[in-house]
Amino acid sequence: MDPNSACAGTADRPALTELRLSSYKSHRGAVFPLSPMTVFAGPSGSGKSTALQACTALARLGGGDVLDDVFDDAPACVPEQAKPDAQRRRGFRIGCTVDGPVGAVRLDLAVQAEPELRVVGERLTLGGQVLLSTALRDPARRTVQAAWHTAGAVPVTRAPLPDDRLGTALLPLRVAGKTAGQRLVLAAAEQAVVALRSVFACDPQPERMRTPVAVGAGRLQGGCGNLAEVLRRTRTECVTRHAALVAAARTGCVGVVEDLAAEDLADGTVRAVLDRGALGVTPLGRLGDGELRYLALALVLLTGPGVLEMEPVAEVLPARQALTVLADGLDRCLDRRQVYELLELAVRMGQRGHVRLVGAVQDGAAAAGVAGVSVVDLGCERRC
């Protein structure tokens, strides 16, 4: 389970603290501060999901994914009012800030969506100093010209980088770290990449959680369809966290809840059940969508990268990492009480330095009532 201690400081843990959507879908010039617990609120079409999608895209690029896999419909990311230039080119721009040991590192990315998908510009800065910049010099080549800070005999190093990947994520393979400038570049790039790779996008799908599943690696998927096999693992590996999950289930589920368990079935699969004490057990498949989503989200908040289906940042100690959960449709199928309890749980885990949360809800009233949660009301921004 997650090895972070309750007393571990959070200042040394790289974390996303700002999302910038300079030109992305319905957003233009948008800057969103991200506190440890941030909830985007607003009606359908206000841009909540768009903000989380951009954050997910940056996270995947930080993990090494190529543009084609991250943006499967890149033209849809371009604002509708954006006009093509003389070469019929249109694109979008997104960015983020990562706070951590070296300070506030800014990452900004310009992507050409049409006529072909490619990176056309990237900038990594710290304290106003440009540590990495890339630019498309020759459209006929599938590379961008990169320049990074050296501060040695040669102040800047220049080299081509692929135009389908995030250059910041490639720097550890290109920079030797021999000079103070190179080491600063590496530290800033590592901080940004660690924060991006520590993002877990979660949107539980109740229909996938109702049927028994095969026993596998016991790592929770983003859709939480394998909840049963993960419960089978976590129930024995971390008694304290499991007890907290059972307590959350008592609050968010109807009826008596004595325990959450996983039953091994004769065909080799496993199903999750609620132990009702003297009333017997209830398979989770019989629960409503709201209860299933509530339990899945509670489990995510109570576990860590070792249990979630994400690549751990092996180069950095777990105590120096902070998990960021992206939860689109956080209140989908949930009543206000369940939303409140989930956010209270998130705040408690956040105080331990275990997790950060960026969620999206339609009604921000429940979130506004939880101390420690910042609400970004996109409905208000659209009206204003």
Write the SSE topology.
Elements: E1 15-24, E2 27-33, E3 37-41, H1 48-62, H2 67-70, E4 90-100, E5 103-114, E6 118-126, E7 129-135, E8 143-149, E9 156-162, H3 167-174, H4 180-197, E10 199-202, H5 206-209, E11 213-214, H6 227-237, H7 239-252, E12 259-264, E13 269-275, E14 281-283, H8 289-302, E15 323-327, H9 336-351, E16 355-361, H10 365-368, E17 374-377, H11 378-383
Parallel strand pairs: 3-16, 3-17, 10-15, 15-16
Antiparallel strand pairs: 1-2, 1-4, 4-5, 5-6, 6-7, 7-8, 8-9, 11-13, 12-13, 13-14
Helix pairs in contact: 1-4, 3-4, 7-8, 8-9
- Give the oligomer, counting copies of the same chain as homo and different chains as hetero: single chain
Helices, by number, come to: 11
What is the C-alpha radius of gyration, as a whole number of Å?
22 Å
Q: Could you give the distance between the termini?
A: 45 Å
Biggest sheet strand order reads: 2-1-4-5-6-7-8-9
Stretches where pLDDT is under 50 for at least 5 consecutive residues are 1-9
User: DSSP strand (E) fraction?
Assistant: 25-35%
H/E element order: EEEHHEEEEEEHHEHEHHEEEHEHEHEH
What integer is the average pLDDT?
91
Helix content: 25-40%
Biggest sheet: strands, sense, closure? 8 strands, antiparallel
Count the beta strands: 17
